[in-house]
Amino acid sequence: MRRWALIALSGTLLVGGCSGAVHRLPQVSDGEVAAALAEVRAEKGGLMGRPVSDGEVRETLRSAIQRVREPALQVCHEMNVGPCTWQFRISRDHALNASAMLNGLIVLNRGLVEHAANEEEICLAIAHEISHQAANHVVQGLRNQMIGAAIGAVVLGAGTAVATSGRRDSAQATRSAAELGMQVGAMIGRLSFSKEQEREADYLAALILYRAGVDLEKARGLLVGMARESRRTTTTMFDSHPVGPERLAAWDRAVAEVRASGGSLPPRAK
Question: Rg of the Cα trace of the chain?
């Protein structure tokens, strides 16, 4: 019974969380994803890290932040959704990653500098995290987790209570099921929105880089390299990001739309 309750819970939360983006995002065709996949497979090698000094890390990140900050502020104020005051912190983590946190905090791993082929790729990573802040994805993600946890506890707890009614261990079984429902609900509540939020953060990053005059083709190399490194081709319901080829195709569509609009924000989602 618990297995079917979890499946029902997953469906309920995913139907309720089918968007999560502030703006209407362009749809990507299967043909565009296939073309991106072919490009990724044609590329050789992986993301090669290189040793860099602490001074180079600080200076490179400072330069990239300076290049994108003003156009990012413009976009953020035009959106009027999330925080437009950001604090940047450098992490000693060697992973090619960055994170958007509560209260406008953005953590940039030194791995960005160690693995990026150029500063334009670092600008893309920074603009992506700024976009999460501007669209208020961090707060929304926490809210989705709380809602998912609450729904999960009710659905699985109530279902177990009915199924075990009259049994001596009914109360304990119901409590255990409710706790499991909270955990699963929180996870699904987060994932049900996150892929659309990641697509939106990439779209807004393309817009920010366009306004900043950053070479979008050079920046794109980061997504090609990440797609090649992951070697995954299919996005599942348990992924927090679109997989590489899908993400690359969405980036190309976003760049085309940004250029066609002259750097305007896309329409708001309804």
Answer: 21
**Which CB contacts under 8 angstroms, 24+ apart, belong to 232-235?**
233/37, 235/195
DSSP string, 167-178: -TTHHHHHHHHH
Q: How far is residue 158's CA from residue 95's CA, in Å, rounded to a whole number?
A: 42
Residue 195: pLDDT band by 50, 70, 90 thresholds? confident
DSSP string, 89-146: EEE---SS-EEE-GGGEEEEETHHHHH-SSHHHHHHHHHHHHHHHHTTHHHHHHHHHH
In degrees, to the nearest 5, what angle opens at C-alpha 267 toward C-alphas 261 and 270?
Answer: 165
Q: For the chain, where are the alpha helices, taking DSSP H only?
A: 2-16, 30-42, 54-79, 111-115, 119-134, 137-163, 170-212, 216-230, 244-261
Within a 13 Å sphere around the CA of 182, how many CA atoms are in the beta-carbon half? 8
Nearest to 5 by CA among 226, 206, 174: 174
Mean pLDDT for 128-152 is 79
CA 92 from chain centre, in angstroms, equals 22
Report pLDDT for 86. Answer: 98
Beta bridge partner(s), residue 87: 105
